[in-house]
Amino acid sequence: MKSKASYPLLILTFLCNGFSYSQETANFLLFSEQLQWTNPALVGLTEQKRLGIMIDSQWLGIKDAPKQQTLFFESFNPSQKLNLGALIRNRSRFAENSTQFFLQFAYPIQIANNTYLQLGAHAGGDFYELNFDYLSSIDGVVKDPLLQRQLRFIPNGGIGIYLKRKEYVFHLSFPRLLEGLAFKNIPEVFLPNRFYFSTAIARSFKTVLDRELFTLTFQLHNLGLDSLLFQLKGSYPLPFGELLLGVNSSKSSSVGFQLYTQGVFGLAYAFEFPIHSSADLKLNNHSIVLQFKIQSKN
């Protein structure tokens, strides 16, 4: 048993050592709470009604470094054929600040005893702000129009699916379908013109007694700064929670844990770091999730 459980750790270690130098980290999607905004079909899979907050901080000690705060909610009711969710997500990076909000819906379908499907959709929008007030024009112009504060609201929506069959899970989503409609009025420097998607496939490995050993997840998306990001994640159940390890194509690694309690409170933490870096800047990322269980499955 112990030798089988060490297989994914060896795989992740090999991939980490195989990557070359990195200059910039890219945010991992280790936790289910980090995935909620990417795919509305994942709402309600925990079979809990819960409220939580997630905080991401990069490059600690650097003024105006990238930060992110997310307030999320999801509701599960076995007597109703609809799971509900909502989130407010604020991101800031130097002169850029955006606040995103979504209302989410997921429709569960039990296809067979070992096959489960969930269809999801969300709707909302993004408030984008560019503020260069602390900069000055190099040609001496007191109020350079290029450096003036810019505000934009972009309506947005997305769809997704989640499919589980036996030990396999597949999900696919397009979380920002309407964003491209606004590009004719927004300069290219404001937002990347991109068709966003996220997809993943996972397999759970179990013992002959049906006890879970670990889960291995392959994920591909273009939701970050990179045009395309591949991530490999391993999760290992513990008596008190879950251990998470990850590596991605931006030459970054991540380690984290989720603490499960019998009460209403839950905690998760992850630390992301470049595998190799020639820069003096510490390109690390810290993620903390605090969640409160309102109601569990009866």
Structural overview:
- A 14-stranded antiparallel beta barrel has the order 1-2-3-4-5-6-7-8-9-10-11-12-13-14.
- Strand 8 and strand 9 form a beta hairpin.
- It has three helices and 14 strands.
- It has a single domain, classed as monomeric porin ompg (Porin, Beta Barrel), CATH 2.40.160.
- Helix content is 7%, strand content 52%.
- With 298 residues, the protein is mainly beta.
- The longest helix has 12 residues.
Summarize the structure.
With 298 residues, the chain is mostly beta strands.
Biggest sheet details: 14 strands, antiparallel, barrel
CATH architecture name: Beta Barrel
Q: Which value, in Å, is the CA radius of gyration? A: 20 Å
Number of beta strands: 14
Strand and helix map with partners:
Blueprint lengths: L1 H4 L1 H12 L13 H4 L12 E11 L8 E9 L7 E11 L2 E17 L2 E16 L19 E16 L2 E7 L23 E9 L5 E10 L7 E10 L2 E8 L3 E8 L5 E10 L10 E12 L2
Antiparallel strand pairs: 1-2, 1-14, 2-3, 3-4, 4-5, 5-6, 6-7, 7-8, 8-9, 9-10, 10-11, 11-12, 12-13, 13-14
Can you tag this structure with a few keywords?
single chain, 298 residues, mainly beta, Porin, 14-stranded antiparallel beta barrel, 14 strands, 52% strand
